[in-house]
């Protein structure tokens, strides 16, 4: 179960990143070029939030069953001083929860705006901040905190 969830979490991360990048691109384009907010813009916003929430559910489930997190929580005093254990036990989940909150808030704020330019602006700003947090909190192969492969296979 753990390996399956880990692989799924690794795969869905790319869908999150792609959907966020597409949403941000369309939001900045709409905002800066005064485009009308269309049904496809709304659908892309909803898809982005849905993918992000799916990743959040997988991540929380993974956090609950992870042997790394279990070790971190049961050996907190020692683990807090080990970069890799601290990253997965505390930093990764905290930053991703913040990013998911920003994505959700940004989508909700954009949905309630009456002016198309304001919808695009809200989406662009909130999603951009979330993407920055996500980029800094993913365990990339080049990360100074911990290293994981770009693609994890079963």
From TrEMBL:
Key words, A-Z: Membrane, Transmembrane, Transmembrane helix
Keyword field contains Membrane: yes
Membrane-spanning segments: 12-31, 43-65, 85-110, 122-140
Keyword Transmembrane: yes
Superkingdom, natural source: Bacteria
Protein name in the entry: Cytochrome B
Organism: Albibacterium bauzanense
């Amino acid at each position: 179960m753990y390996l399956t969830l880990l692989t799924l979490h690794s795969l869905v991360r790319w869908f999150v990143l792609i959907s966020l990048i597409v949403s941000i691109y369309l939001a900045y384009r709409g905002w800066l070029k005064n485009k009308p907010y269309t049904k496809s813009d709304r659908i892309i916003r909803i898809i982005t939030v849905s993918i992000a929430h799916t990743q959040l559910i997988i991540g929380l489930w993974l956090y609950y069953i992870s042997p790394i997190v279990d070790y971190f929580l049961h050996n907190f005093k020692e683990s807090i001083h080990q970069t890799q254990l601290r990253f997965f036990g505390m930093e990764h989940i905290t930053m991703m929860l913040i990013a998911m909150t920003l994505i959700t808030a940004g989508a909700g704020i954009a949905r309630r705006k009456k002016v198309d330019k304001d919808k695009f602006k809200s989406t662009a700003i909130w999603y951009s901040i979330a993407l920055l947090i996500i980029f800094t909190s993913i365990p990339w192969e080049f990360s100074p905190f911990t290293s994981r492969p770009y693609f994890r296979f079963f």
